[in-house]
């Protein structure tokens, strides 16, 4: 049975998603998407949802989010915000803190992981906004692995990240009690490329005697990281780009 607080989440997400998408697409196009997915709604009603004067009922809100996702408009929002310079460098910092990108990320995460996650884990720093919002949407605990210990009196889980430019080894640390034993963990990151940070976070989950149930990212620039995941781990990426 869904609680009233849980019912409010898709209502808020549907409003935020529609408001965000109205900045990227014509109202008529959004109306067509909903109509094609057999969602009964008038254009005046759609306008009220976008403005936020009225929120859609819980079940209708879920159907709205599902319909929008089916047309790949979430990826288009990220594409509209994406910038890659002549050296192949992605504007990660901008994407990681962009309100529109984070809004569609929350909607996608809700559809993919609602009621299946206990902890959202990320590595500082650019993954924190995404992970924080996903933790809220999924009613999960937030865990952030950092490059330094905050206290010598706390027991930490640690893992290594092998960096290539320049060649070095970086350690990340997470207080051991931030991931309870047997908890279901979603790893969130703004950008996936080589999978080095992902591998370190997977090792932390393993050492915590917990389970990685999913990986979520805003942008993926290769498929190298996918080989790190077992078949039962679900992955969701808003925009895949092969460089």
TrEMBL record:
Domain spans labelled Phosphoribosyltransferase: 104-219
SUPFAM superfamilies: PRTase-like (SSF53271)
InterPro entries, alphabetized: PRTase-like, PRTase_dom, Pur/Pyrimidine_PRTase
Keyword Protease among UniProt keywords: no
Keyword terms, alphabetized: Purine salvage, Transferase
GO terms classed as biological process: purine ribonucleoside salvage
Any Pfam family matching the protein: Pribosyltran
GO molecular function: transferase activity
Name listed for the protein in its UniProt record: Phosphoribosyltransferase domain-containing protein
Organism field: Thermofilum adornatum
Lineage of producing organism: Archaea, Thermoproteota, Thermoprotei, Thermofilales, Thermofilaceae
């Amino acid at each position: 049975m869904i609680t009233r607080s849980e019912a409010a989440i898709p209502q808020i997400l549907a409003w935020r998603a529609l408001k965000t998408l109205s900045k990227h697409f014509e109202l008529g196009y959004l109306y067509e998407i909903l109509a094609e997915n057999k969602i009964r709604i008038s254009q005046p009603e759609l306008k009220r949802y976008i403005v936020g004067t009225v929120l859609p009922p819980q079940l209708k809100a879920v159907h709205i989010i599902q319909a929008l996702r089916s047309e790949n408009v979430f990826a288009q929002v990220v594409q509209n915000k994406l910038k890659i310079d002549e050296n192949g460098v992605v504007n990660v910092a901008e994407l990681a803190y962009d309100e529109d990108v984070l809004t569609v990320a929350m909607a996608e995460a809700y559809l993919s992981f609602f009621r299946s996650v206990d902890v959202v884990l990320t590595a500082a720093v650019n993954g924190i906004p995404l992970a924080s919002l996903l933790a809220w949407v999924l009613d999960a605990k937030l865990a952030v692995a950092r490059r330094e210990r905050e206290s010598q009196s706390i027991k930490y889980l640690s893992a290594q990240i092998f960096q290539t430019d320049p060649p070095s080894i970086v350690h990340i640390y997470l207080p051991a009690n931030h991931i309870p034993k047997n908890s279901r963990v979603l790893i969130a990151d703004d950008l996936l490329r080589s999978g080095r940070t992902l591998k370190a976070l997977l090792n932390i989950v393993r050492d915590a005697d917990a389970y990685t149930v999913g990986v979520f990212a805003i942008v993926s620039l290769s498929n190298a990281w996918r080989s790190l995941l077992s078949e039962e781990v679900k992955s969701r990426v808003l925009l895949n780009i092969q460089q």
